[in-house]
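Deliverable D2.4 — example input (C-alpha coordinates):
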Protein backbone atom coordinates (compact mmCIF):
# COMPACT_ATOMS: atom_id res chain seq x y z
CA UNK A 1 0.00 0.00 0.00
CA UNK A 2 2.85 2.36 0.88
CA UNK A 3 4.49 1.68 -2.47
CA UNK A 4 1.20 2.06 -4.33
CA UNK A 5 0.93 5.58 -2.89
CA UNK A 6 4.21 6.48 -4.67
CA UNK A 7 2.36 5.92 -7.97
CA UNK A 8 -0.62 8.26 -8.22
CA UNK A 9 -1.61 6.56 -11.50
CA UNK A 10 -1.91 3.14 -9.81
CA UNK A 11 -5.40 1.65 -9.77
CA UNK A 12 -4.70 -0.78 -6.92
CA UNK A 13 -5.08 -3.80 -9.17
CA UNK A 14 -1.52 -5.01 -8.67
CA UNK A 15 -1.82 -4.65 -4.88
CA UNK A 16 -5.04 -6.64 -5.03
CA UNK A 17 -3.40 -9.34 -7.13
CA UNK A 18 -0.63 -9.58 -4.52
CA UNK A 19 -3.36 -9.94 -1.88
CA UNK A 20 -4.89 -12.79 -3.91
CA UNK A 21 -1.50 -14.52 -3.95
CA UNK A 22 -1.19 -13.96 -0.17
CA UNK A 23 -4.56 -15.63 0.34
CA UNK A 24 -3.43 -18.65 -1.68
CA UNK A 25 -0.19 -18.70 0.32
CA UNK A 26 -2.09 -18.78 3.62
CA UNK A 27 -4.24 -21.69 2.44
CA UNK A 28 -1.17 -23.61 1.19
CA UNK A 29 0.71 -22.80 4.40
CA UNK A 30 -2.16 -24.19 6.48
CA UNK A 31 -2.04 -27.48 4.54
CA UNK A 32 1.77 -27.67 4.69
CA UNK A 33 1.72 -27.11 8.48
CA UNK A 34 -0.75 -30.00 8.91
CA UNK A 35 1.01 -32.38 6.51
CA UNK A 36 1.40 -35.73 8.20
CA UNK A 37 -1.84 -35.25 10.16
CA UNK A 38 -4.17 -35.07 7.17
CA UNK A 39 -4.09 -37.23 4.06
CA UNK A 40 -2.13 -34.73 1.96
CA UNK A 41 1.33 -36.36 1.75
CA UNK A 42 2.34 -38.74 -1.02
CA UNK A 43 2.02 -39.08 -4.76
CA UNK A 44 -1.12 -38.68 -6.83
CA UNK A 45 0.09 -41.30 -9.29
CA UNK A 46 0.52 -38.92 -12.24
CA UNK A 47 3.57 -37.49 -14.03
CA UNK A 48 3.57 -33.77 -14.80
CA UNK A 49 4.73 -32.02 -17.97
CA UNK A 50 8.27 -31.83 -16.56
CA UNK A 51 8.38 -35.64 -16.33
CA UNK A 52 8.26 -35.48 -12.52
CA UNK A 53 6.00 -37.48 -10.20
CA UNK A 54 3.22 -35.20 -8.93
CA UNK A 55 2.68 -35.02 -5.20
CA UNK A 56 -0.75 -34.38 -3.68
CA UNK A 57 0.50 -31.09 -2.26
CA UNK A 58 1.77 -30.03 -5.72
CA UNK A 59 -1.72 -30.48 -7.13
CA UNK A 60 -3.38 -28.80 -4.16
CA UNK A 61 -1.05 -25.78 -4.33
CA UNK A 62 -1.43 -25.51 -8.10
CA UNK A 63 -5.21 -25.34 -7.90
CA UNK A 64 -5.22 -23.07 -4.87
CA UNK A 65 -3.19 -20.37 -6.63
CA UNK A 66 -5.30 -20.59 -9.79
CA UNK A 67 -8.58 -20.49 -7.84
CA UNK A 68 -7.37 -17.42 -5.92
CA UNK A 69 -7.01 -15.37 -9.11
CA UNK A 70 -9.33 -16.85 -11.71
CA UNK A 71 -12.56 -14.98 -10.95
CA UNK A 72 -11.07 -11.61 -10.00
CA UNK A 73 -10.81 -10.17 -13.49
CA UNK A 74 -7.26 -9.04 -12.73
CA UNK A 75 -5.43 -11.81 -14.60
CA UNK A 76 -5.86 -12.72 -18.29
CA UNK A 77 -3.80 -15.93 -18.30
CA UNK A 78 -2.04 -18.16 -15.76
CA UNK A 79 0.79 -20.57 -16.46
CA UNK A 80 2.07 -23.08 -13.94
CA UNK A 81 5.02 -25.40 -13.86
CA UNK A 82 2.51 -28.21 -13.27
CA UNK A 83 0.35 -27.57 -16.37
CA UNK A 84 1.37 -28.28 -19.94
CA UNK A 85 -0.29 -25.20 -21.45
CA UNK A 86 -1.15 -21.74 -20.19
CA UNK A 87 -4.75 -21.42 -18.97
CA UNK A 88 -6.53 -18.40 -20.44
CA UNK A 89 -8.92 -16.84 -17.94
CA UNK A 90 -12.47 -15.83 -18.75
CA UNK A 91 -13.36 -12.25 -19.29
CA UNK A 92 -15.72 -10.76 -16.73
CA UNK A 93 -18.80 -9.16 -18.21
CA UNK A 94 -18.72 -6.33 -15.66
CA UNK A 95 -15.34 -5.32 -17.07
CA UNK A 96 -16.65 -4.57 -20.54
CA UNK A 97 -14.91 -7.58 -22.15
CA UNK A 98 -11.46 -6.13 -21.46
CA UNK A 99 -9.99 -9.14 -19.71
CA UNK A 100 -7.41 -9.00 -16.94
CA UNK A 101 -4.42 -6.69 -17.13
CA UNK A 102 -1.86 -9.13 -15.71
CA UNK A 103 -0.18 -12.43 -16.54
CA UNK A 104 0.63 -14.75 -13.62
CA UNK A 105 3.22 -17.53 -13.85
CA UNK A 106 4.07 -19.69 -10.86
CA UNK A 107 5.74 -22.74 -9.45
CA UNK A 108 3.11 -23.81 -6.91
CA UNK A 109 5.35 -25.95 -4.72
CA UNK A 110 9.05 -25.83 -5.35
CA UNK A 111 11.24 -28.53 -3.82
CA UNK A 112 8.76 -31.39 -4.30
CA UNK A 113 11.22 -34.06 -3.27
CA UNK A 114 11.42 -32.41 0.15
CA UNK A 115 7.65 -32.40 0.78
CA UNK A 116 7.42 -35.77 2.49
CA UNK A 117 10.47 -35.31 4.72
CA UNK A 118 9.55 -32.08 6.49
CA UNK A 119 12.12 -29.85 4.80
CA UNK A 120 11.35 -26.25 3.72
CA UNK A 121 9.51 -25.81 0.43
CA UNK A 122 8.17 -22.76 -1.39
CA UNK A 123 5.90 -21.13 -3.96
CA UNK A 124 7.40 -18.82 -6.61
CA UNK A 125 5.44 -16.24 -8.63
CA UNK A 126 6.10 -13.91 -11.53
CA UNK A 127 3.73 -11.17 -12.72
CA UNK A 128 3.86 -9.44 -16.10
CA UNK A 129 1.59 -6.92 -17.77
CA UNK A 130 -0.22 -8.44 -20.75
CA UNK A 131 1.54 -7.31 -23.93
CA UNK A 132 0.74 -9.54 -26.88
CA UNK A 133 -3.04 -9.16 -26.63
CA UNK A 134 -5.12 -6.20 -25.52
CA UNK A 135 -8.54 -7.67 -24.79
CA UNK A 136 -10.12 -11.05 -24.06
CA UNK A 137 -8.25 -13.93 -22.44
CA UNK A 138 -4.43 -13.87 -22.61
CA UNK A 139 -2.28 -16.22 -24.68
CA UNK A 140 1.04 -18.03 -24.66
CA UNK A 141 2.63 -14.97 -26.29
CA UNK A 142 1.70 -12.91 -23.20
CA UNK A 143 3.71 -15.38 -21.11
CA UNK A 144 6.86 -15.35 -23.27
CA UNK A 145 8.33 -12.07 -22.04
CA UNK A 146 11.81 -11.27 -20.79
CA UNK A 147 12.26 -11.32 -17.02
CA UNK A 148 13.24 -7.65 -17.19
CA UNK A 149 9.60 -6.86 -18.02
CA UNK A 150 8.21 -8.34 -14.77
CA UNK A 151 6.13 -5.91 -12.72
CA UNK A 152 6.36 -8.02 -9.58
CA UNK A 153 7.91 -11.28 -8.48
CA UNK A 154 8.55 -13.13 -5.29
CA UNK A 155 8.25 -16.27 -3.28
CA UNK A 156 6.60 -17.73 -0.22
CA UNK A 157 8.83 -19.89 1.94
CA UNK A 158 7.19 -22.52 4.15
CA UNK A 159 10.11 -22.80 6.56
CA UNK A 160 10.47 -22.41 10.32
CA UNK A 161 7.96 -19.62 9.70
CA UNK A 162 6.01 -18.80 6.55
CA UNK A 163 7.48 -15.78 4.77
CA UNK A 164 6.51 -13.77 1.73
CA UNK A 165 9.41 -12.01 -0.01
CA UNK A 166 8.61 -9.87 -3.04
CA UNK A 167 9.63 -6.97 -5.23
CA UNK A 168 7.79 -4.59 -7.48
CA UNK A 169 11.07 -2.98 -8.58
CA UNK A 170 11.41 -0.83 -5.46
CA UNK A 171 13.57 -3.01 -3.30
CA UNK A 172 12.79 -6.34 -1.71
CA UNK A 173 10.53 -6.69 1.29
CA UNK A 174 9.89 -9.66 3.55
CA UNK A 175 6.67 -10.36 5.47
CA UNK A 176 6.20 -13.09 8.07
CA UNK A 177 2.85 -14.83 8.47
CA UNK A 178 1.54 -14.37 11.99
CA UNK A 179 -0.60 -17.50 12.37
CA UNK A 180 -2.47 -16.08 15.34
CA UNK A 181 -4.07 -13.33 13.24
CA UNK A 182 -3.65 -14.87 9.77
CA UNK A 183 -1.81 -11.88 8.31
CA UNK A 184 1.58 -11.30 6.71
CA UNK A 185 3.37 -8.60 8.73
CA UNK A 186 6.31 -6.57 7.45
CA UNK A 187 9.27 -8.12 9.27
CA UNK A 188 12.18 -7.58 6.84
CA UNK A 189 11.91 -4.21 5.06
CA UNK A 190 14.38 -3.43 2.29
CA UNK A 191 16.41 -6.66 2.23
CA UNK A 192 19.95 -6.21 0.86
CA UNK A 193 22.17 -9.10 -0.11
CA UNK A 194 25.87 -8.88 0.89
CA UNK A 195 28.17 -8.29 -2.14
CA UNK A 196 30.29 -11.31 -1.24
CA UNK A 197 28.75 -14.52 0.01
CA UNK A 198 29.53 -16.72 2.98
CA UNK A 199 28.05 -19.79 1.30
CA UNK A 200 28.15 -21.67 -1.98
CA UNK A 201 25.22 -23.95 -2.78
CA UNK A 202 25.37 -26.58 -5.47
CA UNK A 203 24.62 -30.28 -5.87
CA UNK A 204 28.22 -31.45 -6.05
CA UNK A 205 27.20 -35.03 -6.86
CA UNK A 206 26.95 -33.78 -10.47
CA UNK A 207 30.66 -32.79 -10.55
CA UNK A 208 31.67 -35.40 -13.12
CA UNK A 209 28.92 -34.26 -15.49
CA UNK A 210 29.96 -30.58 -15.48
CA UNK A 211 32.06 -28.73 -18.05
CA UNK A 212 35.62 -27.85 -16.87
CA UNK A 213 34.69 -24.14 -16.51
CA UNK A 214 31.99 -24.92 -13.94
CA UNK A 215 34.34 -27.28 -12.11
CA UNK A 216 36.86 -24.41 -11.90
CA UNK A 217 34.22 -22.04 -10.50
CA UNK A 218 32.91 -24.49 -7.89
CA UNK A 219 36.48 -25.50 -6.99
CA UNK A 220 37.30 -21.83 -6.36
CA UNK A 221 34.21 -21.30 -4.17
CA UNK A 222 35.23 -24.37 -2.18
CA UNK A 223 38.99 -23.81 -1.88
CA UNK A 224 39.45 -20.10 -2.69
CA UNK A 225 41.27 -18.59 -5.65
CA UNK A 226 44.21 -16.44 -4.54
CA UNK A 227 43.00 -12.89 -3.90
CA UNK A 228 39.95 -13.28 -6.14
CA UNK A 229 37.71 -15.51 -4.02
CA UNK A 230 37.91 -16.55 -0.40
CA UNK A 231 36.91 -20.18 0.32
CA UNK A 232 33.26 -20.44 1.31
CA UNK A 233 31.19 -22.71 3.48
CA UNK A 234 28.81 -25.16 1.72
CA UNK A 235 25.02 -25.26 2.23
CA UNK A 236 22.60 -27.11 -0.06
CA UNK A 237 19.03 -27.83 0.98
CA UNK A 238 17.77 -28.93 -2.42
CA UNK A 239 14.73 -26.63 -2.23
CA UNK A 240 15.51 -23.72 -4.49
CA UNK A 241 13.46 -21.16 -2.55
CA UNK A 242 15.05 -22.11 0.75
CA UNK A 243 18.58 -22.07 -0.70
CA UNK A 244 18.00 -18.69 -2.35
CA UNK A 245 16.43 -17.20 0.76
CA UNK A 246 19.33 -18.20 2.99
CA UNK A 247 21.85 -16.81 0.52
CA UNK A 248 19.85 -13.61 0.09
CA UNK A 249 19.88 -12.96 3.82
CA UNK A 250 23.40 -14.18 4.67
CA UNK A 251 25.20 -13.75 1.34
CA UNK A 252 26.00 -16.64 -0.94
CA UNK A 253 25.95 -18.02 -4.43
CA UNK A 254 23.67 -20.79 -5.71
CA UNK A 255 24.54 -22.74 -8.86
CA UNK A 256 22.50 -25.17 -10.93
CA UNK A 257 24.65 -25.47 -14.06
CA UNK A 258 24.07 -27.42 -17.24
CA UNK A 259 25.49 -30.95 -17.22
CA UNK A 260 25.78 -33.84 -19.62
CA UNK A 261 22.35 -35.19 -18.58
CA UNK A 262 20.58 -31.78 -18.62
CA UNK A 263 22.35 -29.68 -21.28
CA UNK A 264 19.97 -26.74 -20.59
CA UNK A 265 20.18 -27.12 -16.83
CA UNK A 266 17.27 -28.27 -14.69
CA UNK A 267 15.52 -25.13 -13.51
CA UNK A 268 12.71 -23.41 -15.38
CA UNK A 269 13.31 -19.91 -16.73
CA UNK A 270 9.80 -18.52 -16.33
CA UNK A 271 8.71 -20.05 -13.01
CA UNK A 272 11.99 -20.21 -11.12
CA UNK A 273 15.02 -18.41 -12.59
CA UNK A 274 13.41 -15.16 -13.81
CA UNK A 275 11.31 -14.31 -10.71
CA UNK A 276 14.15 -15.18 -8.33
CA UNK A 277 16.59 -13.20 -10.50
CA UNK A 278 14.32 -10.15 -10.22
CA UNK A 279 14.22 -10.45 -6.42
CA UNK A 280 17.96 -11.05 -6.10
CA UNK A 281 18.89 -8.18 -8.47
CA UNK A 282 16.59 -5.84 -6.56
CA UNK A 283 18.40 -6.82 -3.36
CA UNK A 284 21.77 -5.90 -4.94
CA UNK A 285 22.75 -9.36 -6.23
CA UNK A 286 22.98 -10.84 -9.73
CA UNK A 287 21.79 -13.83 -11.76
CA UNK A 288 23.23 -15.27 -14.96
CA UNK A 289 22.96 -18.41 -17.08
CA UNK A 290 26.78 -18.49 -17.18
CA UNK A 291 27.02 -15.77 -19.80
CA UNK A 292 23.87 -13.63 -20.01
CA UNK A 293 21.81 -11.95 -17.32
CA UNK A 294 18.80 -14.18 -16.65
CA UNK A 295 16.50 -11.15 -16.90
CA UNK A 296 17.64 -10.47 -20.50
CA UNK A 297 16.82 -13.93 -21.86
CA UNK A 298 13.87 -13.90 -24.27
CA UNK A 299 11.95 -17.14 -23.71
CA UNK A 300 10.85 -19.14 -26.73
CA UNK A 301 8.99 -21.88 -24.83
CA UNK A 302 6.81 -21.92 -21.73
CA UNK A 303 8.72 -24.64 -19.91
CA UNK A 304 12.17 -23.56 -21.08
CA UNK A 305 15.04 -24.55 -18.80
CA UNK A 306 18.17 -22.59 -18.05
CA UNK A 307 21.45 -23.00 -16.20
CA UNK A 308 21.48 -20.65 -13.19
CA UNK A 309 24.17 -18.92 -11.15
CA UNK A 310 22.55 -16.52 -8.70
CA UNK A 311 23.39 -14.64 -5.55
CA UNK A 312 25.94 -12.18 -4.19
CA UNK A 313 27.07 -9.77 -6.88
CA UNK A 314 30.84 -10.24 -6.71
CA UNK A 315 30.59 -14.03 -6.58
CA UNK A 316 28.37 -14.12 -9.67
CA UNK A 317 30.74 -11.70 -11.45
CA UNK A 318 33.65 -14.00 -10.57
CA UNK A 319 31.81 -17.01 -12.05
CA UNK A 320 31.04 -15.03 -15.20
CA UNK A 321 34.67 -13.98 -15.65
CA UNK A 322 35.99 -17.57 -15.23
CA UNK A 323 33.37 -18.94 -17.62
CA UNK A 324 34.12 -16.31 -20.29
CA UNK A 325 37.89 -16.93 -20.20
CA UNK A 326 37.68 -20.32 -21.90
P1 LIG B 1 12.75 -30.67 -6.76
O1 LIG B 1 13.39 -31.53 -7.82
O2 LIG B 1 12.73 -31.30 -5.42
O3 LIG B 1 11.39 -30.15 -7.16
O4 LIG B 1 13.23 -27.21 -9.37
C1 LIG B 1 13.14 -28.31 -8.65
C2 LIG B 1 14.16 -28.53 -7.55
O5 LIG B 1 13.66 -29.37 -6.56
C3 LIG B 1 14.67 -27.26 -6.84
O6 LIG B 1 13.81 -26.80 -5.84
C4 LIG B 1 15.98 -27.71 -6.28
O7 LIG B 1 16.88 -26.64 -6.07
C5 LIG B 1 16.48 -28.66 -7.33
O8 LIG B 1 15.34 -29.10 -8.08
C6 LIG B 1 17.17 -29.87 -6.73
O9 LIG B 1 17.70 -30.66 -7.73
P2 LIG B 1 18.79 -31.80 -7.42
O10 LIG B 1 18.06 -32.89 -6.70
O11 LIG B 1 19.30 -32.24 -8.75
O12 LIG B 1 19.87 -31.20 -6.59
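Example output (designed residues):
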Amino acid sequence: MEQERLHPEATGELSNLLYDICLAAKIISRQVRRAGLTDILGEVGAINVQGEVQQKLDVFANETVRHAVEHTGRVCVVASEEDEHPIPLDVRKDRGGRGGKYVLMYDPLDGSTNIGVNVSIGTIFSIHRRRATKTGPGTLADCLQKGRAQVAAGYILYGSSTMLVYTTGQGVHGFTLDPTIGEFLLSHPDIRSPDVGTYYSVNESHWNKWAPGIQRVVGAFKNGDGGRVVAKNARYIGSLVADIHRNLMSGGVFLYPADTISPQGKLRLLYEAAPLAYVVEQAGGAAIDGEHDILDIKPSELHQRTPLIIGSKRDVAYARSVLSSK
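The mean pLDDT is 93.
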